[in-house]
Structures are given as C-alpha cells and as structure tokens.
User: Fold this.
Amino acid sequence: MGTPPLIVFTDLDGTLLDHESYSFDPARTALERLRALEIPLILASSKTAAEIVEIQRAIGCQAFPAIVENGAGLLDPATGGASSDGRYIELLAAINEVSPSIRSQFEGFHDLGPKGIVQATGLTPEAARLAAKRQFSEPGLFYGGPEDLDAFLRALGKLGVKARRGGRFLTLSFGGTKADRMDEIASGFGNPPRLALGDAPNDVEMLEAADHGVIIANPHGADLPRLPGEAAGLIRRTALPGPLGWNSAVLDLLYQMDL
Ligand SMILES: [Mg+2]
Assistant:
C-alpha cells in the first residue's frame, strides 16, 4: 500500500461523538468518503484500549491503530485491544512509593475498584469495567490541599511519573501526549499530511502538530483560547458542534484537497 493522501486523527467525546448521545451518525457521509479513499482514521482519546476497540468496531476503523489513555499508549490493531498491561503495573508501583501520608490522599481507579469508579464517574457498571482496564495511565481523585498536591507531584516527578489535570481527575502516567503518538503512527503510514480534530484543552498539542487542525465547537465546555495556528490559517473552528461539525470540516478539506 502506498502513502495515503491524508491521515485523520480525531478526538471522540464532543468531537466525533455527540456530547450527549455519543452518536457519530451525523458524520457518516464524511466517514464513508474517508473509507472509500482508504484514508486512515485514527481515534485519539482518554479512553482505554478496551473502550476504544468497541467504538472502532462500531465505526469500522478497527484495522487502524488508535491513541489511548490520552497519548500515554497506543492500541495496536493486531492485538484487538486485549494486549499487555503496558506499563500500568510499574506505574502503580511508582505511585505506591510516595510516602503514605501523601499517597493516602490520592484515590486512583485501581484503588476505587469497579464500584468506586461507577460512583466517581457516573459511568454504567459495564462502561466502568472497560474504563478500569488500564494499561498506561491512572486517573484518580486527590483529596488534599494545594500544598499536599505539590508534594505529591514532586515525589511522583522524581519517579518519572507525570500528571495531567482534566476536569475533576488527576491522571498519572510515564508521559506521552496525543501529539507524540501522532508522529509514531503517521510515520508508519509514510507520513501523509495530517488532519486533526478536537474540542478540548487535551487536544491542543494534537491540533498544533497537524497540517490541518479543526477545533470542533463545544457548547458544553469552555471555549479554547485562540491558538497560534489559527492566525496562520492552519487551524479553523467549526460553527456546528460534535459530529455535525466533524462531517462538514472533513468534507470541506477533502474538497479543498481535490479528493
Ligand atoms: Mg473531547
């Protein structure tokens, strides 16, 4: 197979999936065009491989890799998501090295267990079961004040563990962003031009690393600040939210590229 004319990296919630219904139906026309053109569609999300593989199957893009756990790891299509533990065991061990008085103020998904995850996230038990199948990163709640949080993050930093805040959750991993993983995946396809679509702060690096970035309107979240790529014309914003905006942005670019 030669190099495809384009590779598409997309966030899921609020981007390809509707914020409320989780449907990608309004994006079907663009998805079918991508399939006909054999353009790789790479899902990139905070979700686990176990969660993403189900969405890949529904969309029909399970032949492609995906960026999982916010870039902390990759889903290899050869394994169907049921792959190794990644570095999760090593990560949990590092977190447990923090002194108990500080460590005890953090409750990760592993500590919470399936029932605790349901309570903390509002996910259904089945969804929580998939969200608990972690390979690369550990989200959790930190109950202490800012000083203890600083001490926690400093101690983790010495162990090579990085932290990202997203909403209520603090997510710990050995690093890696959605943008880091884009390079890895795009090179596997011969480095075609990249289109990236996202709606939230954890998508910014991906949008900025792409040749074409699209900020999907998100009426439910805070507006993203204006990005440097917007002035340069590399990043644009959709008027329509979620999969509706996704559909028109992808079709527009294919048209613009004569595809
Ligand atoms: Mg999103």
